[in-house]
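Local shape tokens:
==================
===
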Amino acid sequence: MDATAHARDRASTPAAAEIRLEGVSKVFADGTVGVAELDLTVPAGELTVLVGPSGCGKTTTMKMINRLIEPTTGRILVGGEDVTRVDPNELRRRIGYVIQSIGLFPHQTVRANVGTVPRLLGWDKRRTRARVDELLATVGLDPAVHGDRYPAQLSGGQRQRAGVARALAADPAVLLVDEPFSAVDPVVRERLQSEFLRLQETVRKTIVFVTHDIEEAVRLGDRIAVMSQGGHVEQFATPAELLGRPANAFVADFVGADRGLKRLAVTAIDAADLEQPPIVHVDDGLADARSALTRSGARWAVVLDGAGSLHGWLSAERAGGSGTVRDACRRMDAWVPRNASLKTAFATMLQHEAGWVAVLDGDRFLGVLTPESLHAALRRSVEGWAPETAGAARS
């Protein structure tokens, strides 16, 4: 793509659009109420998850946004425009749509599939190919390797990536995603979720994401709408708020009794959570290290190198005798970056069967989390939630 065309594309890229549903209902021909008087605002540039049991109206709600299902009453505004007054075909070309079954055309190559909407919009071949190759690379598919393959020649995860690329091809302001990862195995699913989060960091679309899996909702969503039968929104909140303060018994039951543990996944490590053990350096003598351990009353110390980076750890038992700390310390593999969640820290501690996990800012050592401080952080993360176990104490 030449510089002029590239600049034109960037200038015409739509900003992420707020979605607002006002008194939206859907009553089917047999009288079944799919959604009743729904009011919901999806903030621009955020990923909002609709979650709930089967038959609660979450997919119906999403499909009304691009009018695959026509609302019976109410208004749906995308970027301030009432979509019920827009030609449906034009509307759908402006809204990306990713579905569970992917929906790639089996007789077309991956490149042709991804370029479907740009062709419908009249883009020239050069511009379309450049956009398709850019998107394939963005979703982790090498255009030179995968572009000319057919869907049957791809794995399930690769087909799902191609489906996401196709939905993004015309650079829509809004993306609708309907249980896209439920048909793949758990390992691929987790990898695709990570890729989807990375992609959202790059493109910052307004995304409505439907799932029945609360774990997926908590991991992906900026906000989560928990829905019950008839399309009622029982609670609309951030993952941390939802898990920490369920609005009612329905929400509490849906998110699960282990919601405190789930909240670890959406709670970042705070500096206040960190303990500061004694610190020695690799070139210190063991006599000096023993003195530091004795003064602190600790059974182990963190070992740093000359640049302040984590080198390992030294137990009191190995600090005896002569020599340097370098000779006696052990490697420390249990560490996490400062932007990790409490869940990641806990998992790392368990994986390495460690009594503590170090927290690093780049290479710089910040402190450690121990089982005790992790437990304190867990209590902080669920502040405001009354324990339901009989006899549980509250502090």
In short: The mean pLDDT is 84. DSSP finds 17 helices and 16 strands in the chain. The chain has two domains: 3-264, 271-379. The longest strand covers residues 33-42.
